[in-house]
Amino acid sequence: MIQALIGPIASLAGSWMESKVEATKAKGKVAQAKAEAEAEVMKVAATHEAGWEKIMAQASDNSWKDEAWTILFIAIIAMCFIPFTQEYVADGFAALSNTPEWFQYAVYASIAASFGLRGLKGMKK
Questions:
Q1: Is the pLDDT of residue 123 over 70?
Q2: Beta strands in the chain (DSSP E)
Q3: Which residues contact 103 (CB under 8 A, 6 or more apart)?
Q4: Would you give the end-to-end CA distance of the chain in angstroms?
Q5: So what's the pLDDT on residue 52?
Q6: Percent of the chain with pLDDT over 70
Q7: Using CA atoms, how far apart are residues 100 and 5, in angstroms rounded to an integer?
Q8: Burial class, 28, CB count within 10 angstroms (exposed 0-12 / middle 13-18 / buried 19+)
Q9: Which of 123, 125, 120 is nearest to 53 (CA)?
Q10: Coil, helix or strand at residue 103
């Protein structure tokens, strides 16, 4: 009698175990598909960002704005070390400290556009 019960119970336990194994496999496949999709999204985003930066670099090949900002910064720094111009630099920075916030961000954006978008990311920190 016990032997007659063992077969169906073993079969039931085996099918229960198989369903658990299949469920675990399915969860693993879903997790793998999700990871692959996220990796693809990151890859596409990186490709688009690199392409955009290449386009921007090509567009600024004939532009003088990079050089203009560089010359301006060099002039300001140099004036800090020339005694009779130091007062003008200090007055200029005092005047700039009273500018509206939107103007400050416009200047940041202009400088970032000139030197590349990566420069703006560094300024946020």
A1: no
A2: none
A3: none
A4: 77
A5: 67
A6: 72
A7: 86
A8: exposed
A9: 120
A10: helix
Q: What digits encode the pLDDT tens for the residues 41-78?
A: 888 777 777 776 676 666 666 678 778 888 999 999 99
Residue 89 burial (10 A CB sphere; 0-12, 13-18, 19+): middle
d(CA 55, CA 42): 20
- Rounded distance, CA 44 to CA 42, Å? 5
The set of residues, in sequence order, having a beta carbon less than 8 Å from that of 117 and lying 6+ positions away, is 52, 53, 56
Contacts of residues 4-11 at CB distance under 8 Å and 24 or more positions apart, as own/partner, are: none
Q: Residue 7: its pLDDT value, please? A: 67
Residue with tokens 């202009």: 110
User: How many angstroms from the chain centroid is the CA of residue 66?
Assistant: 23
Task: Read off the pTM.
Answer: 0.45
